[in-house]
């Protein structure tokens, strides 16, 4: 009798957090943040340094490994010295990444790469979410997870924000920015919101306003443990978002790909946030 036992190892790409370093102070902050993210996800950290000559990378990579070991002794760390441009190195390394992390405000390397629309270009070529750690914001703990939700938002972007809030045990704050066709002033309610039932209805209506085409309600059902507050912002969405980042742990925005190029146009909130956000920004590829 032959007992056919097949032990099949699933060909699953192991999730990891990838971080780009270049030896600058801001990339050290990005490294610290990436290590915290990897520890939170219980997955390995991959440190990538793009240099013209691989031998130049050794000191920076070695100091990165020892710095991570001090903060998270049990965390598995891999290092890569890439002889390509920083954007290309990150895009290549991000293929098996749950999250790719970079810093802004550096000079050259991964830091100088990430100003304005350039960072959106990196996001468009990075496979998966890109966390942009700003140089003036060292720590991302505490505060809400903030989600910018335009009318044409993608379910994957909102889902990432829910997951982020769940991982942190944080509240999710949704700022919905409707398209400009909704410019009519709101009429005052004819029924005063005094009874508990009426108050609940008003709260639900406010939340349901922040429902783009895929429906926020379905994501609430999938993540019942996440507390959600939703607001609709009809004027000055970029300013409202910037103000909201003052108290947030992280802000999540979507970037649409079209022919390999990201979609946000001048005046969209993406570039504004990447330049001026008070907290780190996660750019999630949509579509």
Structure overview:
Strand 2, helix 2 and strand 3 form a beta-alpha-beta unit. By secondary structure, the protein is α/β, with parallel strands linked by helices. The radius of gyration is 21 Å and the shape is globular. Strands 1, 2, 3, 4, 5, 6, 7, 8, 9, 10 and 11 form an eleven-stranded mixed β-sheet that branches. It starts with 15 loop residues before the first strand and ends with a strand.
Key traits:
11-stranded mixed β-sheet; 287 residues; single chain; alpha/beta; 36% helix; disordered N terminus; globular
Which secondary structure elements does this structure contain, and how are they paired or packed?
Elements: E1 16-20, H1 25-41, E2 45-50, H2 58-71, E3 77-82, H3 86-93, E4 97-103, H4 109-112, H5 117-125, E5 130-133, E6 144-150, H6 155-168, E7 172-177, H7 196-209, H8 216-222, E8 228-232, H9 237-244, E9 248-258, E10 261-262, H10 269-276, E11 281-286
Parallel strand pairs: 1-2, 1-4, 2-3, 4-5, 6-7, 6-9, 7-8, 9-11
Antiparallel strand pairs: 5-11, 9-10
Sequence stretches where pLDDT stays below 50 over 5 or more residues: 2-13, 114-118, 181-192, 259-267
Tell me roughly what share of residues is in helical segments. Answer: 25-40%
Q: In sequence order, what are the helices and strands, one letter per element? A: EHEHEHEHHEEHEHHEHEEHE
Number of strands: 11
Mean pLDDT figure: 76
Radius of gyration: 21 Å
Count of DSSP-assigned helices: 10
Helix/strand/pairing class, anyone? alpha/beta
Net shape: globular
First and last CA, distance: 52 Å
Sheet having the most strands: 11 strands, mixed
Strand content: 15-25%
């Amino acid at each position: 009798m032959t007992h056919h036992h097949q032990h099949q190892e699933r060909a699953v790409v192991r999730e990891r957090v990838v971080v780009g370093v270049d030896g600058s102070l801001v990339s050290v902050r990005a490294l610290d943040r990436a290590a915290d993210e990897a520890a939170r996800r219980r997955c390995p950290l991959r440190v990538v340094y793009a240099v013209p000559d691989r031998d130049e990378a050794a000191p920076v990579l070695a100091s990165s490994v020892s710095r991570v070991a001090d903060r998270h002794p049990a965390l598995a760390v891999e290092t890569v010295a890439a002889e390509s441009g920083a954007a290309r190195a990150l895009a290549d390394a991000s293929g098996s990444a749950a999250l790719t992390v970079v810093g802004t405000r550096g000079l050259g390397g991964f830091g100088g790469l990430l100003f304005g629309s350039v960072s959106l270009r990196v996001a468009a070529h990075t496979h998966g979410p890109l966390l942009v750690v700003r140089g003036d914001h060292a720590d991302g703990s505490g505060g809400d997870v903030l989600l910018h939700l335009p009318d044409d938002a993608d379910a994957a972007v909102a889902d990432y924000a829910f997951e982020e809030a769940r991982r942190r045990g944080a509240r999710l704050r949704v700022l919905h920015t409707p398209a400009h066709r909704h410019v009519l002033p709101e009429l005052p309610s004819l029924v005063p919101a005094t009874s508990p039932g009426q108050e609940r209805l008003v709260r639900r209506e406010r939340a349901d306003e922040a429902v783009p085409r895929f429906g926020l309600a379905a994501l609430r059902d999938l993540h019942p443990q996440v507390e959600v507050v939703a607001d609709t912002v009809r004027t000055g969405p970029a300013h409202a978002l910037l103000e909201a980042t003052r108290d947030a742990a992280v802000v999540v925005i979507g970037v649409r790909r079209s022919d390999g190029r990201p979609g946000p146009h001048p005046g969209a909130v993406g570039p504004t946030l990447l330049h001026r956000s008070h907290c780190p920004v996660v750019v999630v590829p949509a579509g």
